[in-house]
Amino acid sequence: MKHTHLSAIAAAGLAATLLAACGDDVGSGSAAGASAAAGGGGNDSLSCTNEIQVEGVPQVTVWAWYPNMETVVDNFNSSHEDVQVCWTNAGQGNDQYDKFQTAIAAGTGAPDVVMLESDRIPNYVIQDALVDISGYGYEDVQANFSEGAWKDVSVGDAVYAAPVDGGPMAMIYRTDVFEQYGVTPPTTWEEYEAAARAVKDAGGPLFGDFGANVPAVVMALQIQAGAQPFEYDPANPTEISVALDDPASVKVLDYWAGLVQDGLVGTQDQFTPEYISGVVGGDYATYVSAAWAPGYLSGAGVGEGADAGTFAVAPLPQWEGADPVSVNWGGSAFAVTTQAADPELAAGVAFDLYADEESLTDGWQNQVIFPLNQDVLTSAEFVDYEVGFFDGQQANKEVYVPAADAYEGFTYAPFGQFYYQSLTEQIAAINAGEVTGAEAAAELQETVTAYAEEQGFTVTD
Fold it and tell me: CATH topology of 4-164+331-378 equal to that of 169-327+415-460?
């Protein structure tokens, strides 16, 4: 599927702008990417990090950064005599994306299969960098994942990646704080605010945090409230709907702005030593996050020592209690690049990699991933698992599996990184008391609409 108009735009302007928006050192990333394109990675099978177990058969090159990827690749290669995976860790997140972007621009150096976060997929689709794999065995594995999981890796009717893991959202909370101040897990955001006020009035800690560096969380909560930030269909590749100042979006921004203004939640950037120190020290009663959060927190040292056994998880509070909506933060998948030597073979690898029972079990038991594969989500071992971080709570059964099952999927923008950067700036302005939620939403609508039009899109209502 060719989108000549937007592909030219992406190559000349959109990609460069998005890379700048990432906040990374684009120069060093591009240099690394150029090295990969010259033979340090990409389709060069000599660059394998792993051991090839069967010689003389086709090899499919893969870029991926899952922590247990070496185990996953070894599991795949040991069980396949007709194809072998040549794996390279080209960097995590933006580091890999910089290299992939350079390979796209150069027309060479990309792997056959690349690990992508779901919200990045549309950006590469408009550059003709990914293959629609719906005709390469999709129907054979379609039942392995929910409709929501497939929607996250699709653009229009085309499927651009094989799902692996996701991030159904929930509310982690400190049982010691809740018990001390006599509050129970809120089921609605109205109850969340009431509990926050009760804890503050009693001299307790902040109830949560509204970090500017987690815009994906804010977008998820807006969608939970009924917003539809973007609508995009490659069947009409020059058109996009942008709705960032609709009532639902304004409602969410005004809500959190009010919590900040009243001193009920903090404004610390998350994923920082300062934030983790606050979590360990009991500065926050709750953490609104995703199913992968227990692994992240454990790896950062949370839940050890004095705060061991103090964490539990509850379903994400709802804007309308009678009509619960499940939302997602994060999740990655394997996509086939248009530089793949054999797209059909590469698609087979994308569908089969990290899909075997041994790899999936290793991933979820070690809290590396929250698997989306239905064989895992319906297994008694996974559902009934007593999570150590939550002091033995059956968190999957009570919270995360129901959230994953109810998730219906997002429609991501083909310029999502610019939107996230713009939203981050507006959250920071809210936290600084410079704008209201409604003012931030209006500025977002104007800024993102102008950007979309600059990139050649016609913005529709």
Answer: yes
> pLDDT tens across 156-174, in order?
899 999 999 999 999 999 9
3-state secondary structure of 97: helix
Q: Domain spanning 4-164+331-378: which CATH class is it, in words?
A: alpha beta
Contact in structure between 231 and 240 (CB atoms under 8 Å): yes
Q: Is the dihedral of CA 362, 365, 366, 369 positive or negative?
A: positive
> pLDDT averaged over the chain?
89
**What is the per-residue DSSP string for 55-108?**
TTS-EEEEE---TTHHHHHHHHHHT-SS-EEEEE---STHHHHHHHHHHHHHT-
Tell me the C-alpha distance between 231 and 58, whole Å: 39
The pTM is what?
0.88
- The two tokens of residue 305 are 């020592």
Q: Cα dist. 18→21, 97, 122, 139, 193 in Å?
A: 5, 10, 12, 33, 36
Cα 236 versus chain centre, distance:
26
Tokens of 220: 């998820």
The CATH class given to the 169-327+415-460 domain equals: alpha beta
243/136 Cα distance (integer angstroms): 35
Residue 117's beta-bridge partner residues? 332
**Diameter over CA atoms, the chain:** 70
In the chain, where the domains are located: 4-164+331-378, 169-327+415-460
Decide: 282 and 453 in contact? Cβ < 8 Å: no
**DSSP type of residue 323:** S
Question: Is the torsion defined by CA of 271, 370, 424, 25 positive or negative?
Answer: positive
Q: What is the CB neighbour count within 10 angstroms for residue 198?
A: 14
In this structure, the number of other CB atoms found within 10 A of the CB of residue 5 comes to 13
Angle (nearest 5°) at CA 366 between 362 and 369: 80
Q: Which amino acid is at 264?
A: L
- Give φ, ψ of 63 to 5 degrees: -105, 130
Summarised one tens digit per residue, pLDDT across range 121-155 is 999 999 999 999 999 999 999 999 999 999 999 99
User: 213 with 270: CB under 8 angstroms?
Assistant: yes
Q: Judge whether 67 and 164 are in contact, CB under 8 Å.
A: no
